[in-house]
Design brief:
Elements (H helix, E strand, L loop, with lengths): L1 E4 L34 H11 L4 H8 L3 H8 L7 H11 L30 H7 L8 E4 L3 E5 L8 E8 L9 E4 L2 E8 L1 E6 L2 E6 L3 E5 L4 E4 L6 E8 L6 E4 L3
Helix pairs in contact: 2-3
Length: 245
């Protein structure tokens, strides 16, 4: 595997096996079972039940064991990125269906409007604006957190802020899905494995690639990494694990 550094020499660090914590946990990994507000498992179970599927049926569609599906539904395990994509495809729902809405109403606008502008109404705020404290979120396996940056789900596009805790990874193996990805590193560093290449990105670096290329994200450092990504889905999409490097 060759390596490409987009900004200066690469920093050494773990390349596999994420053990990081989501931002705001002080470096401590949270116990998923002690975080009922996360709700991914509850939503998976609800969609599965609505479709008349057994745990074993969903597991077969996703390509994982029934015990893993059961653990996800009970909040004992978090899915990887590729597993979450595969579950969404099997249940015929967008990934946005699994986002946890924020607690409480959106924060008030931070400043007064200009002399010729009327203050925005609460309804307009909810339609157009996402305050930092009101983002819908998903906490995924190995210290990865997604924060949606749009007020509602958009058709065939995801606009997200990604938070990768120390050592966190998107998936243990390469995976692919229909579409394109664009990513900008806001802070920290991120290794992006793309086929047989590894690209090391630092703050301010950006990258664009076809999501059909097998890929995975890894934070190789002991600090939290934040990035903004746009994922364009070409109609119906799917996630396919790819064990080749």
């Amino acid at each position: 595997m060759s390596e490409t550094t987009l900004s200066g020499p690469a920093t050494t660090g773990p390349e596999e096996g994420g053990t990081g914590a989501p931002a705001g946990t002080g470096g401590r990994r949270r116990d998923p079972a002690a975080d009922p507000a996360d709700g991914i498992g509850r939503r998976v179970a609800a969609f599965r039940t609505e479709r008349g599927l057994r745990v074993s049926d969903l597991a077969r569609h996703v390509g994982v064991s029934p015990s893993l599906v059961s653990q996800i539904e009970r909040g004992l395990s978090r899915p990887s990125v590729s597993t979450l994509f595969a579950i969404a495809e099997a249940l015929e729902v967008p990934v946005d269906a699994f986002f946890r809405e924020s607690d409480g109403p959106p924060a008030a606008p931070p400043s007064e409007p200009g002399p010729h502008a009327a203050p925005s109404s609460p309804a307009a705020e909810q339609r157009y604006v996402v305050r930092r404290t009101s983002r819908p979120t998903i906490d995924i396996e190995s210290g990865v957190r997604w924060e949606r940056l749009t007020p509602t789900a958009l058709k065939n596009v995801e606009f997200l802020e990604l938070v990768y805790g120390p050592g966190a990874e998107s998936n243990s193996t390469l995976y692919r899905h229909v579409g394109e990805e664009m990513i900008l590193i806001l802070s920290g560093e991120l290794d992006i494995y793309l086929g047989f290449e590894k690209y090391h990105l630092r703050e301010g670096d950006s990258m664009h690639f076809s999501s059909m290329q097998p890929h995975r994200y890894v934070n190789p450092t002991s600090s939290t990494t934040r990035a903004v990504t746009t994922i364009l889905h070409d109609g119906d999409w799917y996630a396919t694990p790819d064990n080749g490097r």
